[in-house]
Write a structure and sequence with these properties.
Strand content: under 5%
Shape: globular
Helix content: over 70%
Structural class: mainly alpha
Number of strands: 2
Oligomer: single chain
Distance between the termini: 20 Å
Length: 467
């Protein structure tokens, strides 16, 4: 298997299709794009603009020097359709999943269900700081799996700030927010649709929703418990000692009203039903008649459409709230990766990846996981996941291979090494600064490093021993 990609690259170069100088030129462009993504904040440019610019450059240069597949695309049945070369390059299934899931979650959140759950659990904790940490930590993991890690961080982080202020425990807020930020990336490992790298790598490998959950959930459970125990110890979060303190804390949190965000009881129960139905349908997509042919993207869009009926006269506000930057980023990224494939850049990277794979059944996946985590800590994990998924597909990597999981775990957990490693850690730092707490880039790294190293080591052991 490892020699197939190298042989393909050598044969193509010998055939004169793509010279090594052209491959290196496009490789330099890829490195420049990744560097710009890492410096996104410094450049004051959104991801879609950065990658869109590089996609334009790649397509123009590719049309000049590469043997791109211009001409009609032949569909099943022999029907030919004239499409621009960049349209078939885009994985529209991934775009559909992200678009549909984002719309569905956004509309469903308006029913007040997630706020109701959060406040109910807060009141159940009795206001005890250690209980609150566990409640909010578990809630962060679940919300990150069902919603997305940014939404989870906003909901739980904001509630943490309000609750701790009400309990006059603001000195614990930094610890709470950091632990929750780290847990968003652990929760992002729970299901196939919890994070974008999961969607890209999982769909490329052919991993079903149920299989993904069964294989990832033991690690998520152990990592979550370990992170909460370590976090409570390092940040000095303890239970209330006296009966008077516990009674006062319970009285303070009892003033929260879980019904504040519920506009309509009927819509609340409908939203709860639809959320359960959505998760169940996504989980069983691969075995449902007809739906299995249409795919998870169709399921996500269909459920989003049903939920939008509730706001049929005011759907524009949900369309405006969509993360168009993310969708544009994806479309442009797929175009760039397609050009890199034609320029043999992926084949060149693949020869380096094969050296890691050839380290053996244990060292190979471990090296892929650790290098993926390191790369994801300083730049966006999505291009990394997309490139490695494409390379492993070209290598005919079996669906059962631990290499797929090495990329998934590394790409997600690498976000816990630095504050720019994932969007949710950036949101956490924003909330920290909003509440007047001081935390520099280096300060985040120092505090997060023990957690991240432990989680990555645990993931490597889990992937090698149990997957």
């Amino acid at each position: 298997m490892p020699t197939q990609l190298l042989t393909l690259a050598v044969e193509n170069n010998h055939a004169g299709e793509v010279s090594i100088s052209i491959t290196l030129l496009f490789g330099a462009i890829l490195v420049a794009m990744i560097a710009c993504l890492a410096l996104e904040e410094k450049l004051h440019a959104r991801k879609s603009i950065i990658v869109g610019t590089f996609a334009t450059i790649c397509l123009l240069l590719g049309a000049w020097v590469l043997p791109l597949p211009f001409g009609p695309a032949v569909l099943p049945g022999g029907h030919a359709v004239n499409l621009p070369v960049y349209i078939p390059a885009i994985d529209w299934g991934v775009i559909a999943i992200i678009l549909g899931s984002s719309l569905f979650v956004d509309v469903t959140s308006k029913c007040g269900l997630f706020g109701w759950i959060a406040i109910k659990l807060t009141k159940a904790s009795g206001g005890d700081p250690l209980k609150l940490l566990w409640v909010y930590g578990l809630m962060t993991v679940v919300f990150s799996a069902v919603l997305n890690n940014v939404t989870a961080m906003i909901i739980v982080g904001s509630l943490s700030a309000v609750s701790l202020k009400k309990l006059t425990r603001q000195e614990l807020l930094l610890g709470f927010l950091l632990i929750e930020a780290l847990l968003t990336n652990i929760g992002g490992l729970l299901t196939l649709i919890s994070s974008v790298p999961n969607i890209i790598v999982g769909t490329t490998a052919g991993i079903s929703f149920v299989e993904f959950f069964i294989k990832s959930s033991p690690f998520v459970a152990v990592a979550t418990v370990a992170t909460l125990i370590l976090g409570a110890k390092l940040f000095g979060i303890r239970r209330l000692a006296g009966a008077d303190e516990r009674a006062e804390a319970a009285f303070l949190v009892s003033g929260f009203d879980e019904n504040d965000g519920i506009e309509s009881r009927r819509f609340f129960f409908f939203g709860a039903f639809m959320l359960v139905a959505f998760i169940a349908t996504i989980a069983t997509t691969s075995v449902l008649p007809f739906i299995s042919d249409l795919g998870m993207g169709f399921v996500a869009l269909a459920f989003a459409g049903v939920m939008l009926i509730r706001y049929k006269h005011d759907v524009n506000r949900f369309y405006r709230a969509l993360d168009w930057d993310l969708l544009g980023f994806f479309a442009a990224l797929f175009a760039v990766i397609s050009i890199m494939e034609h320029a043999q850049v992926l084949a060149l990277i693949g020869t380096g990846v094969t050296h890691l794979i050839e380290l053996g059944d244990r060292l190979g996946p471990a090296s892929i996981l650790i290098s993926s985590a390191a790369a994801s800590s300083v730049t966006d994990n999505i291009p990394l996941a997309a490139m490695l998924a494409k390379i492993f597909a070209a290598l005919d990597t079996p669906r059962e291979s631990t290499l797929w999981w090495a990329v998934i775990f590394g790409a997600n957990l690498g976000g816990n090494l630095t504050p720019i490693g994932s969007a949710s850690t950036l949101v956490a730092v924003t909330i920290i600064h909003k509440h007047g707490l001081k935390l520099s880039f280096g300060g985040f790294v120092v505090r997060a490093f023990p957690f991240a190293v432990f989680q990555i080591a645990l993931a490597a052991g889990y992937v090698l021993l149990f997957l």
